[in-house]
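note to self: dont lose this again. the chain is below, predicted strucutre after it. 141 aa total, dont forget to put it in the shared folder this time
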Amino acid sequence: MHGDYRLDNLLFSGDGAICRAVLDWELSTIGHPFADLAYVVMQWQMPPGSAGRGLAGVDRAAQGLPTDAAFVAAYCARRGLTGIADFGFCLAFSFFRMAAILQGIAKRVADGTAADPAKGRSMAALLPLYAALGVQALDHG
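---
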């Protein structure tokens, strides 16, 4: 699995129709392919902006982007799957994983070792949202 699979780690052709490269592989590891799928969906549920980098509230249809359900359905169709049982668990795992990463950033800010303390505080402020959305994914997934 890639580990940080998202739109801003992809390079597309000039017309945006073809993904030409996947960047930023330092978090790659052996893992379940649904983890990368859930990571994309997780990010899309976050608020837009430099810290959240999500698509929550964005008119995705106007941007040519699918809904979460359509994205997962397209993934399943390409893989020959009828669906993903317990996808809410996969999504919750992504939210909780990111919350743990943000806790590490918050600790570095508190210790005075963060490379960019202002950005670190901004990112760490999202920790409660990631945790809450993780619980929500378990409850509704």
